[in-house]
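Long-time lurker, first post. I've been practising inverse folding by hand and with some scripts of my own, and I keep getting stuck on stretches where the structure tokens seem ambiguous. Below is the full token string for one chain I'm working on. Before anyone asks, I'm not after the true native sequence, just a reasonable design that respects the backbone. If someone could post their per-position residues I'd love to compare against what I wrote down in my notebook.
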């Protein structure tokens, strides 16, 4: 499976996912740290991919959604954006609603 196929699979399999440098508990850059903290503050589980552990994903992710930087946050298969957009959405309450709705959709699928 190519890196782009693995990225696509991860985005489709996880209602909320962040591609970041490091992990939510051990971020390796400030932008990834702030975006992950905003997601954690939403109070729902989310998936993550540490792009530093997979050079192919690190190289190919910018092409996937035509977004050149990390982190990248996806909700329900859609690129939300990077750190600035994620924080702005968190501050205006939009991120919490989107994350909650995405996770409720997943719960009803599994019911």
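-- Answer (accepted) --
I ran through it position by position. Result:
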């Amino acid at each position: 499976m190519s890196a782009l196929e693995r990225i696509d699979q991860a985005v489709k399999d996880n209602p909320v996912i962040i591609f970041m440098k490091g992990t939510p508990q051990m971020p390796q850059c400030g932008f990834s740290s702030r975006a992950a903290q905003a997601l954690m503050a939403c109070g729902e589980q989310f998936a993550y991919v540490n792009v530093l552990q997979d050079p192919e994903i690190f190289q190919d992710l910018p092409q996937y959604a035509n977004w050149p930087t990390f982190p990248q946050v996806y909700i329900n298969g859609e690129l939300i954006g990077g750190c600035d957009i994620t924080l702005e959405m968190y501050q205006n309450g939009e991120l919490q609603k989107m994350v909650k709705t995405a996770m409720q959709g997943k719960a009803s699928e599994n019911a």
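A couple of notes from the structure itself: The chain has a mean pLDDT of 95. The helical segments are 3-13, 30-41, 55-64, 83-91, 94-110. Happy to go over any region you disagree with.
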